[in-house]
UniProtKB/TrEMBL annotation:
It holds the Pfam family DegT_DnrJ_EryC1. It comes from the Bacteria. PANTHER family: DTDP-4-AMINO-4,6-DIDEOXYGALACTOSE TRANSAMINASE, TRANSAMINASE. Belongs to the DegT/DnrJ/EryC1 family. GO terms for biological process: polysaccharide biosynthetic process. GO terms for molecular function: pyridoxal phosphate binding; transaminase activity. Its cofactor is pyridoxal 5'-phosphate. This is DegT/DnrJ/EryC1/StrS aminotransferase. The modification N6-(pyridoxal phosphate)lysine is found at K180. Signal peptide: none annotated.
Amino acid sequence: MLPYGRHSVSSDDVAAVVEVLGSDWLTTGPWVSAFEQQLAKLAGAPGAVSVTSGTAALHTAYAALGVGPGDEVVVTPLTFVATASSATILGANVVFADVTADTGNLDPDSVAAALTERTRVVGAVDYGGHPIDAPGLRAAIRGTKVILLEDAAHSIGGTLNGLPVGSLADVTTFSFFPTKNLTTAEGGAVVSADADVLARAATFRNIGMVKDPLRMRSPRDEAWWYEVQDIGVNYRLPDVLASLGLSQLARLEAFSRRRREIHDRYSAGLGDLDALLLPPTRPGANPTWHLYSLRIRDGRRKQLFDHLRASGIGVQVNYIPVYWHPLYADLGYRRGMCPVAEEYYEQEISLPLFPDLTDADVDGVIELVRGFIRE
């Protein structure tokens, strides 16, 4: 079965991990610090806080922003559930706004209509790797105290109008799951230009421990002394995994280039079929593609999915609208709330996309899709 996504691990990656295994540090050591520094540089941010997953990154970011009961967080339904559930777990009320029909990203007009005096954060996702409409979303929240959070789990290494993903929003989160654009096996990170947010994020992911005397309520002169002032969790990324991430960062540009080549090859091979909608690239965007989100307009998405799976092609569907899940249905959310996102879901199928995919693999997928459409 040809998977829809797959990690790419080289001998250099293996050597990097082995080096850490032979060192005095397996966690909370120098490789974590180096990885965070390189991430911040790539993202155009002054700092980064690494964590154990993309979900942990979202949880940490919302916590660092002070999200809690009584707050509203506006998010897209066309995403993995963690974009919403990480706010729900903190007691916030999630409000779903619709997406644009072309990119599947949050629609600024829908966001503007969803804002209330209780809105604390707008959580926008770089769907498939295409950067959010940051200027449009900024305009939607202008004149408010609402914070823009970019869930960039799909898009590290991308840019919009020459600015790197990581500098487009007030806070950005990344995921380093194996199918993502670079991997630490499991892992994630939070980046921000706000030093206070980064400090709170670092404290939250470290069980809430405060060791800086300047931040303590009752500083002492014992070297072992620390305080826990608020609830925190253990989301510390180990050095073993950070070393893999550091090695992967050195190849991110090559990964991104190959992903764009594959994306373009699919579009060239399928662009003449009227039954299909292809993922666009808006002016000014330079995505690092995580997904090739093909859409079929004639209602045969399931049949195409089954056809490709039966042919050994591990296609996927991204994503079931978040409020369709029982978790949110039980809270009173109903289908039909975001019709554009729901139509996108009903049509979408993700074709295989990862750096080690060969041109022959891509062409084989194209031929299978074309053969199905012509039936």
